Amino acid sequence: MPTISISEATFIRLTARVGERKISIEEVIETLLDDSHRRKEAPTRAVGNPNELSYEEWKARFDAFTKEIQNRADQYPNGFAVDDSRESIYGEREDSQS
After folding, report:
1. Which backbone phi and psi does 5 adopt, to 5 degrees?
2. Along the 98 residues of the chain, how does pLDDT read in single tens digits?
């Protein structure tokens, strides 16, 4: 079986990830390699004004974008949820205007 040398900090991060997901180190590494490969094959995002795209092209790019997000879902700990509420995004701005 091959061996590799990694820094202590990387080892700590790797073992933490394994602990969070309750999977083997090999599975974590395979996931990282697969994700890296998917990113290289992912379609490029629209540049410029999205209003200049036809509906079909916009929809195809939007679908590719949502699929890319779904493919990243396993990178986050179980139960992870983004707080994208108005208060979390604009809270400081609204507080400073009061």
Report:
1. -105, 130
2. 788 898 998 888 888 888 887 888 888 888 888 877 666 665 555 456 777 888 998 899 889 988 888 888 778 777 878 888 888 888 777 666 66
**Tokens 């990694």 belong to which residue?**
6
Burial status of residue 22 (CB atoms within 10 A of its CB: 0-12, 13-18, 19 or more): exposed
Over residues 17-32, the pLDDT tens digits come to: 888 878 888 888 888 8
> What contacts 87, CB < 8 A, 6 or more positions away?
94
Is 44:51 a contact under the CB 8 Å cutoff?
A: no
Nearest to 10 by CA among 30, 27, 25, 22: 25
Burial of 51 (0-12, 13-18, 19+ CB in 10 A): exposed
